[in-house]
C-alpha cells in the first residue's frame, strides 16, 4: 500500500523566534529583551535560534507573567531583513507596528 501524498507532512523547519506579550499596566504590545526588560521595540528583542532556546525564552517570559509584568506571552517567528527584524505572520506584523487605533501617549510612557 503506497502512502497518500496528501497525508504525508514534512517536519516543520524551526525559524528564529522572539517572545511577545502585552504589558500588564498599559496593554501595549511588547517584546522581551536579552536583559529581561520588555518594550515596544522588536528590533531589540532577544532572538531564540533553536527550539531549545525558544523553550528557555518562553520559560523566562512565563516567569515575567507570574511576576505580573506582562500577560499571555507567546513566541512568534521572525525574519531578519538586513538590519531589521520583523514577524513572519501578518497578524504579528500588525501587532509589532502599532495599534490600528491611536492610543494616548501616556500608554507608552514607561516603555
Characterise this structure:
The model has no long low-confidence stretch (mean pLDDT 88). This protein has one domain. It has helices at 51-66, 90-97; strands at 17-23, 29-32, 38-39, 70-81, 84-87. Strand 1 and strand 2 form a beta hairpin. The chain is 22% helix and 26% strand. The protein has 111 residues and is of the alpha+beta class. The protein has a 5-stranded antiparallel β-sheet with strand order 3-2-1-4-5, covered by helices on one side.
Question: How is the secondary structure organized here?
Answer:
Blueprint: E1 17-23, E2 29-32, E3 38-39, H1 51-66, E4 70-81, E5 84-87, H2 90-97
Antiparallel strand pairs: 1-2, 1-4, 2-3, 4-5
Question: What would you say about this model in short?
Answer:
With 111 residues, the protein is an alpha+beta fold. The chain is built from two helices and five strands.
Sheet-strand content, in percent, reads 25-35%
The level of helicity is 10-25%
Note the run of SSEs as H and E.
EEEHEEH
- Give the number of DSSP strands: 5
Helix count from the secondary structure assignment: 2
Spans with pLDDT under 50 lasting ≥5 residues? none
Oligomer: single chain
User: What is the strand arrangement across the widest sheet?
Assistant: 3-2-1-4-5
Alpha-beta content class: alpha+beta
Number of domains: 1
Rounded average pLDDT:
88
CA radius of gyration: 16 Å
Shape summary = globular
**Main sheet properties:** 5 strands, antiparallel
Gap from first CA to last CA: 59 Å
Amino acid at each position: 500500500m503506497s502512502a497518500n501524498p496528501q497525508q504525508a507532512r514534512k517536519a516543520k523547519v524551526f525559524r528564529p523566534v522572539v517572545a511577545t506579550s502585552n504589558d500588564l499596566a498599559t496593554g501595549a504590545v511588547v517584546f522581551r529583551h536579552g536583559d529581561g526588560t520588555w518594550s515596544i521595540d522588536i528590533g531589540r528583542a532577544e532572538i531564540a535560534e533553536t527550539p531549545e532556546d525558544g523553550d528557555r525564552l518562553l520559560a523566562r517570559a512565563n516567569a515575567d507573567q507570574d511576576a505580573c509584568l506582562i500577560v499571555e506571552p507567546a513566541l512568534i517567528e521572525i525574519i531578519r531583513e538586513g538590519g531589521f527584524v520583523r514577524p513572519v505572520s501578518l497578524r504579528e506584523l500588525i501587532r509589532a507596528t502599532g495599534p490600528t487605533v491611536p492610543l494616548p501617549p501616556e500608554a507608552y510612557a514607561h516603555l
